[in-house]
Amino acid sequence: MEHDDLPALELAFPGPERDRGVAAILNGRKTALTGLLEIYEHAGEAVPRLVVAERFRVVERDDPRSR
Predict the structure, then answer these.
(1) Cβ atoms of 7 and 64 closer than 8 Å
(2) C-beta separation of 6 from 56 below 8 A
């Protein structure tokens, strides 16, 4: 699977917080993610299902595909 075919993962809003999260993923310190049920409910989004070893394309600050 090519990187562009992977679902996008956008951490936080573009800026320093996202930069720190992306750096933590790339250097191996961050290996898992969680989300609050209330956020999905408020946004009217489906709660993601658990998929072991699912892969994502990490969106960096200046990635034009995040706009």
Answers:
(1) no
(2) yes
Confidence band (pLDDT; 50, 70, 90) for 65? low
How many CB atoms are closer than 10 A to CB 61? 13
Both tokens of 56, joined, read 């994502």
- Can you tell me the distance from the alpha carbon of 17 to that of 21, in angstroms, rounded to the nearest whole number? 6
The three-state secondary structure class of 34 is: coil
Nearest to 56, CA basis, from 22, 20, 29? 22
H/E element, 8: strand 8-9
* Extents of the domains making up the chain: 3-66
Report the C-alpha gap between 33 and 24 in whole angstroms: 12
- Segment 49-62 mean pLDDT: 84
Predicted local distance difference test score (pLDDT) of residue 64 = 62
